[in-house]
Amino acid sequence: MLNRAALILRYKQPFVDWINAADPSPTSHTLTLAEVNQEHTVYLVEVEDEGELARWLARHHEELFEQELNGWYTDPALWPRNRSLRMLKEWCSFELHTVVVDIGESPLEDDEFRE
Fold first, then answer.
1. Are 88 and 12 in contact (CB under 8 A)?
2. Read out DSSP for 33-92?
3. Cα(80)–Cα(30) distance, rounded to whole angstroms?
4. Nearest 5°: phi and psi at 114?
5. Predicted model pTM
6. Backbone torsion region of residue 29, taken as left when φ is above 0, otherwise alpha when ψ lies between -120 and 50, otherwise beta
7. 5 and 98 in contact (C-beta within 8 Å)?
């Protein structure tokens, strides 16, 4: 069992509206809420319950928001300017899983720290 919780963000309609409006390609397919919520990034966070998650989000909402925005468009000029916690909560819902068990046989690796 890992000493982390799994945090999953699910997009709400305002996020989808931004994805479609910010798309620099005029011929792109208009995405739906169901389509953008087919895959999710799972964040491993150091919280034990919803109360700790609220405090964690208050401290880390901007980096979390930027990570999600960057997953769609890497140009920050396309991102909304006011990336507040309030906006993140309007654009996303959060699902917290506090029991994370690693049943893999190989050691955990972090792609960012490979040499």
1. no
2. HHHHTSS--EEEE--SSHHHHHHHHHHHHHHHHHHHHHHH-S-GGGS-S---HHHHHHHE
3. 19
4. -75, 145
5. 0.86
6. beta
7. yes
CB of 15 closer than 8 Å to CB of 92: yes
Please report where in the chains the tokens 């917290």 appear, as a residue: 96
Q: Return d(Cα 87, Cα 103) in angstroms, integer.
A: 36
In which band, very low, low, confident or very high, does the pLDDT at 25 lie, cut at 50, 70 and 90? confident
Task: Give the tens place of pLDDT for each residue, 27-66.
Answer: 789 999 999 999 999 999 999 999 999 999 999 999 999 9
| Per-residue pLDDT at 28 | 81
Residue type, 42: V
For the chain, give the number of residues: 115
- Cβ atoms 5, 44 nearer than 8 A: yes
Please name the residue that has the structure tokens 């490979």: 114
Q: For residues 83 and 66, what is the distance between their CA atoms, to the nearest angstrom?
A: 8
